[in-house]
Amino acid sequence: MFTIDELYGRTSAGAQLATYRIARTGQVAWAGRFGDRVCPVLDDEVGPPFDSIHGCLVDDDAVSWWGQRDEQIFRIRRELAPPQADGNRSSGTPATTSTARAS
């Protein structure tokens, strides 16, 4: 079990850590620290900044992250790009964000 800071921030030794998920399409989903914020990332596309990211889930057709800003929790969802006949991936569809209040 790891803390959010250990997964997405710095450890006491100062090493930079990042966890990632690999989708069946070969796309890589992760969250990383950019300055003083944490952003979801799919391949080379960086999503919106948050105070923290609390999870990443890859399903058959999309990746979801849960980001927190102050007392609000946001679900960030990015559809995975289907492979094309030549083996490359199309750009997929833009990320969507929904909001939920933290209780």
Task: Present the secondary structure layout.
Blueprint: H1 4-8, E1 20-22, E2 28-34, E3 37-42, E4 45-46, E5 52-58, E6 62-69, E7 72-79, E8 96-101
Summarize the structure.
The chain has 103 residues and is mainly beta.
Describe this structure in words.
With 103 residues, the protein is mainly β. It has one domain (4-101). The chain is 5% helix and 46% strand. It has 1 helix and 8 strands. It has one helix spanning 4-8, and strands spanning 20-22, 28-34, 37-42, 45-46, 52-58, 62-69, 72-79, 96-101. The strands form 2 sheets. It has a 4-stranded antiparallel sheet with strand order 1-2-3-4, with no helix packed on it. Strands 5-6-7-8 form a 4-stranded antiparallel sheet, with no helix packed on it. The longest helix has 5 residues, at 4-8. The chain is globular. 17% of the residues are buried. Mean pLDDT is 76; it is low at 10-17 and 90-94.
Looking at this protein, list some descriptive labels.
103 residues; four-stranded antiparallel beta sheet
Number of alpha- plus pi-helical segments: 1
Taken in chain order, the helices and strands follow as: HEEEEEEEE
Name the average pLDDT: 76
Strand order of the largest sheet: 1-2-3-4
Low confidence ranges? 10-17, 90-94
- Approximately what portion of the residues adopt beta-strand conformation? over 45%
Largest sheet entry: 4 strands, antiparallel
Give the helix proportion (percent range). Answer: under 10%
Shape: globular
Calculate the terminal CA-CA distance, rounded to whole Å. Answer: 23 Å
By secondary-structure content and strand pairing, the structural class works out as mainly beta
- Tell me the number of strands: 8
Q: Total domains, how many? A: 1
Give the radius of gyration. 14 Å
